Amino acid sequence: MKKKIPHILVLGATGMLGRVVYAYLKRKYPETVWGTSRSDKRFFSFEIDDISHSLQSITKDTGKIDYIINCIGLLSSYHDQSRQPDANDFLSVNTFLPLELDAHASAFGYKLIHISTDAVFNSSSKIVDENTPTSPQTIYALSKEAGETSGASSLSIRTSIIGFDPIEMKGLIELVRNMHGSINGFSNQLFCGCTVLHYAQLCHHLIDDEHFARIRKKTKVLHFIPLKPLSKYELLCRIQEILGLPISIEKTVAPQAVVRELTSIFAGEFQIDLYNCDVSQAVRELQTFESTL
């Protein structure tokens, strides 16, 4: 029996995560992947304050959407240069948006893949899995925890991401690429997560191999950590080496240690651990994919 080609909408298709998720899936399903953007007219407009109307408008052109991948988020490390974000900003983007998408899933008939964060656990949490009680410490973490979806057609993915972002210049890689001289690398803070390319591959795995429904029967949240935990100092050294950046990384102890380490009780069961790899390999693969965009 021939597979049904899924119709997919990527929200935030020009951001650090969304641009790679959109490009990767577009190559898999050239005719049935669409994206949204606040400013790029090649994509659909999407108003987070009027989700129902936005979805109605988009689906008039696309037909029924099978999967929405939410890549819109307000990060703790990035803000509008004109002002600091407040609690309402974080709640609007990180909490109310995914919850509204979750609430509309049944009416519009789509499944929702939503990115959460490892920061829903406090920095001293050590080893945590999907069943570990959350313990957010910041307004960002609280907003992400509150925005984790629970509907039968929604799945939240906890991870931490690295990726290129030449448009909005967010994230660790862009920070390093635009530094001169030396940069501090914290030896007592762990990074535990994935590249944006890994995340795109996970979305394809969930959709194409129909793992979404099987996983959702077991859990409403999934930890995705294909990169083994390493210190931020080690991570910066690998990025500097692979990208050939003319900077030095100074090994430094941060005022607050981060020993949080995500694990998953579902990775083997649903073949999520197939994406496990060394961070150097991951950055090289990400760099190669980036060169094709």
From TrEMBL:
Domain of life from the UniProt record: Bacteria
Pathway(s) it belongs to: Carbohydrate biosynthesis; dTDP-L-rhamnose biosynthesis
EC numbers on record: 1.1.1.133
Key words of the record: NADP, Oxidoreductase
GO BP term (any one): dTDP-rhamnose biosynthetic process
Pfam families given in the database record: Epimerase
GO molecular function: dTDP-4-dehydrorhamnose reductase activity
Database matches in InterPro entries: dTDP_dehydrorham_reduct, Epimerase_deHydtase, NAD(P)-bd_dom_sf
Domain NAD-dependent epimerase/dehydratase positions: 8-149
Sequence similarity: Belongs to the dTDP-4-dehydrorhamnose reductase family.
Function: Catalyzes the reduction of dTDP-6-deoxy-L-lyxo-4-hexulose to yield dTDP-L-rhamnose.
Protein name per its UniProtKB record: dTDP-4-dehydrorhamnose reductase
Organism of provenance: Candidatus Cerribacteria bacterium 'Amazon FNV 2010 28 9'
